[in-house]
């Protein structure tokens, strides 16, 4: 692959290879062997047009641990604010010969469009409601390490599915790896084209969580609700917030996930989120660094190979 734009483009064996490499980076990070030269001599630019804590910090750490020169563009202070378009901004940065561009953008498809205009590797750090591929990969690694496998698991993705790129990328990935995925949430927060995914849909948490191995909670993404149905937080927590009573319907050893940022007392009870016997939320963050190291390592290998095989210009 030249870019990492979405899970859609990845084959199951490519997902497994990336997770295997990420596993090695988890091990190295834990043993404090944090520096390698996989990206030495390469320049990584992070362009975040939307807020981020986990994704931006982990991409920056990942690049630095692999030896890249990393630049974080302060998009709020850039010439985008003077009316420059996304593509003109990308072309301008492209002229400075970056090797890896990490892009988060509020519009679905914006990162794919940008990737067509530049001649470096592009990684999608989340585009609108479309995809968040590194989130799905880090979730997959977390599940695989906790459950010992990434197939034939019962997984419930719960909450605001309609506005979630995390849900979409996870649905695609977990389906490709032959898991049984269910969606649980209010009908008003289900996407209209849900049929295309061939998954079971539940309105009731007790039914939806029955005997699942993994409970994946989602954030209420109010910033994408543009005037549509916005539930009151009290009502939402009562019906869909994960608490001990609702979790009791899952398997006894079910793990609890949340991509963050989480709203305690809205999507999830604080005690459940902090329960080290059930919650793998902190592991998800740890896996995020390793998965992003693996993704950039693999793309850099492909980039170097393509450049080595490119015809010499005279
Ligand atoms: N999960 C996730 O994408 O978090 P951030 O928005 O903090 O990057």
Automatic annotation (TrEMBL):
PROSITE patterns xref list: CARBAMOYLTRANSFERASE
Domain called Aspartate/ornithine carbamoyltransferase Asp/Orn-binding: residue spans: 153-298
Domain Aspartate/ornithine carbamoyltransferase carbamoyl-P binding residue range list: 2-144
Listed name of the protein: Aspartate carbamoyltransferase
Protein function: Reversibly catalyzes the transfer of the carbamoyl group from carbamoyl phosphate (CP) to the N(epsilon) atom of ornithine (ORN) to produce L-citrulline. Catalyzes the condensation of carbamoyl phosphate and aspartate to form carbamoyl aspartate and inorganic phosphate, the committed step in the de novo pyrimidine nucleotide biosynthesis pathway.
Positions bound to L-aspartate: 82, 165, 219
Top-rank taxon: Bacteria
Pathway per the UniProt entry: Pyrimidine metabolism; UMP biosynthesis via de novo pathway; (S)-dihydroorotate from bicarbonate: step 2/3
Provenance organism: Cognatishimia coralii
GO molecular function list: aspartate carbamoyltransferase activity
EC number: 2.1.3.2
Sorted UniProt keywords: Pyrimidine biosynthesis, Transferase
Keyword Methyltransferase in annotation: no
């Amino acid at each position: 692959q030249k870019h990492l734009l979405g899970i859609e483009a990845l084959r199951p064996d490519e997902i497994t290879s990336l997770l295997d490499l990420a596993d090695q980076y988890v091990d190295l990070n834990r043993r404090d062997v944090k520096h390698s030269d996989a990206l030495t001599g390469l320049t990584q630019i992070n362009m975040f047009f939307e807020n981020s804590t986990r994704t931006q910090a982990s991409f920056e750490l990942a690049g630095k641990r692999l030896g890249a020169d990393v630049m974080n563009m302060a998009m709020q202070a850039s010439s985008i604010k003077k009316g420059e378009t996304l593509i003109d901004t990308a072309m301008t940065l492209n002229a400075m010969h970056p090797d890896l561009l990490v892009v988060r953008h509020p519009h679905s498809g914006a990162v794919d469009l940008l990737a067509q205009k530049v001649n470096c590797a592009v990684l999608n750090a989340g585009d609108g409601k479309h995809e968040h591929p590194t989130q799905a990969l880090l979730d997959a690694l977390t599940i695989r390490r906790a459950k010992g496998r990434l197939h034939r698991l019962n997984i419930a993705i719960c909450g605001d599915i309609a506005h979630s790129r995390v849900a979409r990328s996870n649905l695609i990935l977990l389906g490709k790896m032959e898991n049984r995925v269910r969606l649980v949430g209010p009908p008003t927060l289900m996407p209209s084209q849900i049929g295309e995914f061939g998954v079971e849909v539940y309105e009731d948490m007790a039914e939806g969580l029955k005997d699942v191995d993994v409970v994946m909670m989602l954030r209420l993404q109010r910033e994408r609700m543009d005037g549509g149905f916005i539930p009151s937080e009290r009502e939402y927590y009562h019906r869909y917030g994960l608490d001990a009573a609702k979790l009791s319907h899952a398997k006894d050893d079910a793990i609890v996930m949340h991509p963050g940022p989480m709203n305690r007392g809205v999507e999830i009870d604080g005690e459940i989120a902090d329960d080290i016997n059930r919650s793998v939320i902190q592991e998800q963050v740890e896996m995020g660094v390793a998965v992003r190291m693996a993704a950039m390592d693999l793309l850099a290998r492909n980039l170097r190979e393509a450049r080595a095989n490119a015809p010499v210009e005279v």
